[in-house]
Amino acid sequence: MAVPKRRQSKSRSRKRNSHNTVKPMKLQYCTQCGTAVPSHVVCPNCGHYQGRPMVASEE
């Protein structure tokens, strides 16, 4: 079985793990009501998606 000959330095390990960070969510604004919503998600406020009504309004 293969075993590493030398211990990996902290620098090398941290460089490899730098891509594993949690990135903040990118928000876009709804074209109908202006609420900040994640992209590719139906607006919870007005029920529109890409300018089209997807959920019937309660009013």
Automatic annotation (TrEMBL):
Alphabetized UniProt keyword annotations: Ribonucleoprotein, Ribosomal protein
Claim: Ribosomal protein is one of the keywords in the record: yes
Region of interest (Disordered), residue spans: 1-22
GO biological process assignments: translation
Keyword check for Lipid biosynthesis: no
Molecular function per GO: structural constituent of ribosome
Bias (Basic residues) ranges: 1-18
A GO CC term attached to the entry: large ribosomal subunit
Family: Belongs to the bacterial ribosomal protein bL32 family.
Cited NCBIfam families: rpmF_bact
Name of the protein described by the UniProt record: Large ribosomal subunit protein bL32
